[in-house]
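Why does residue order matter? Because the sequence determines the fold. Keep that principle in mind as you read this record.
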Amino acid sequence: MKLLSITVLFSLLAISASAGGPGKGYQVGDKVTDFKLKNIDGKQLGLSDFQDRKGVIVVFTCNHCPYAIKYEDRLIDLHSRYGADFPVLAINPNAPTVEDDSYDQMKVRAQEKGFNFPYLLDADQKIAHQFGAERTPHVYLLQPVNKTWQVAYIGAIDDNAGDASAVKTRYLEDALKALKDGKPIAQSTTKAIGCTIKWKQ
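Structure:
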């Protein structure tokens, strides 16, 4: 019964429409405009700070969404294993009216979980709109092309938000490995599963 309740909860959260969202945003192959956002250490950080890397994993996430919480350890693990070449750059896009997702709470959560990657606040939601992000988490894997950033993959981290041990397909990691090996990405888009971003009214 408990398992059923958890499954139903995740299903209901995932199905809700993204009303008030950003519209189309970036697609695979699009060039990405650089940005600067405030990190939890108080410093401004953006894509230009990773020009020497082979790619960047931009993930829109937050503190309170159960999907985002389920993926925290997986993001920490990805950054631990691939961060030297493909660092995780987490961005909280939720409206500041969501108390659990405030800047102060972001700092608390990052310390509690031991985030080993930057955690930026998109206070005016401009970057989430620019990317076309709709959910938390929503991933955009970027690669450098001719001194600009280009979208290589958009979507989910893997195929099982609720149970990391039951994952069968690691969409993001498969795409990342393909980039690293100079091979085509077999599946460049998947459906992002998570809570809808909380947009300003």
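The mean pLDDT is 90.
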